[in-house]
Amino acid sequence: QVQLVESGGGLVQPGGSLRLSCAASGSIFRFYGMGWYRQAPGKQRELVASITGGGFTNFGVTNYADSVKGRFAIFRDNAKNTGYLQMNSLKPEDTAVYYCHLRDTGYWGQGTQVTVSS
Question: Which of 52, 67, 101, 118 could form a disulfide with 61 if both were Cys (CB 3.0 to 4.6 A apart)?
Answer without folding.
Answer: 52
